[in-house]
Amino acid sequence: MRATVLVLVETINDYVSILEDQGYDLIMAPSPAQRAKAIADHADRIDAVLTRGPLGLTADEMAALPKLRIICVLGAGYENVDLTAAKAHGLTVTNGAGVNASSVADHTLALLLALMRDIPRADASVRRGEWVKSMRPSVAGKRLGIIGLGAVGLAIAKRAALGFDMSVHYHNRTQRDDVDYGYCASPVELAAVSDILVIATPGGAQTRAIVDASVLKALGPQGFLVNIARGSVVATDDLLTALQTNTIAGAALDVFDDEPNVPDAFKTLHNVILTPHVAGLSPEATRDTVTMVERNLSAFFSGEPVLTPVQL
Q: Rounded distance, CA 72 to CA 48, Å?
């Protein structure tokens, strides 16, 4: 079967051959205008949609695609895919949980080191000829707390424990019985025993604003926050207040509520590092996520079970 795939992401351009080589017809529509036009012009052709969690797929869009049979999501998160509508239309939904975990974990540690050692400001001072030095905390031996101990959280924990001799605690919906890391029953409890709090949990209604003023207060004025999950997990106003009042020492953020729109208040703070949702982007991770999409599509259109189904 020669299926047509509507591609709503732009980050796979160098790897579309993985899908094309298997005979899929691709309709590339990464911008909102292109997306709307593609759905209007090719509704009777589209068998599959490739999207990301923040881009999602709405109930109205699903209803407008009579041939749609499967939605494939790059990465683990699928928070803006209307799962209720997908189930009502009898669609299959897959994701790429864990495929880019290594890349995300690398970026997390890079953010953490840059934040704690104040690398951006040190670099800027040298470029200006100022040679400004400041006393910064060591990373080794610190206490790391991770909210969400899935594939990404585990990859972060491994790097932190083995590479930096950190002690690791975590908070999950349920306690894991396959790790030796300490378990905390709530984000507040976890923050209280952490020098660094990393957010690696999926987005969505269940995790919205679970990191709020009470969690940040528990993290304390020597504590650092790193978010590589979803902006929705953190109460943005609470975080801004905590940074402005030195309730916490600093934050590194790769994700935001309304991407690509970042609140201007963050940009004025010296104790924040900002990156444009790139933690999961590497040639290796992108290749592997597209390969997982191809494997799911191949299984689906061959009448076999998909590899990474999302439960509807």
A: 7
CA count, 13 A, side-chain hemisphere, 177: 0
CB contact at 8 A, 105 and 152: yes
Nearest to 39 by CA among 26, 51, 27: 27
Residues 66/91, Cβ–Cβ less than 8 Å:
no
| 135 and 256 Cβ atoms separated by less than 8 Å | no
Would strands 143-147 and 92-94 be described as parallel, antiparallel, or unpaired?
A: unpaired
The residues annotated as belonging to the active site are 230, 259, 277
The whole-model pTM stands at: 0.92
Question: Cα dist. 79→58, 82, 280 in Å?
Answer: 11, 8, 17
> Hey, how many other C-beta atoms are within 10 angstroms of the C-beta on 263?
14
148: its two tokens: 């969400």
Profile the chain (312 residues) by mean pLDDT over runs of 10 residues.
91 90 95 97 97 95 98 92 98 94 98 98 96 94 98 98 98 96 98 98 93 98 98 98 98 96 97 96 94 97 96 92
Closest residue by Cα to residue 261 from 242, 277, 272, 273? 277
The residue behind tokens 């935001």 is: 256
d(CA 208, CA 200): 13
Distance CA 66, CA 80 (A): 20
* Range list of H helices, the chain: 17-20, 32-42, 59-63, 83-88, 101-116, 119-127, 151-164, 187-192, 213-219, 236-244, 264-267, 283-301
β-pairing, 250-253 vs 224-227, is parallel
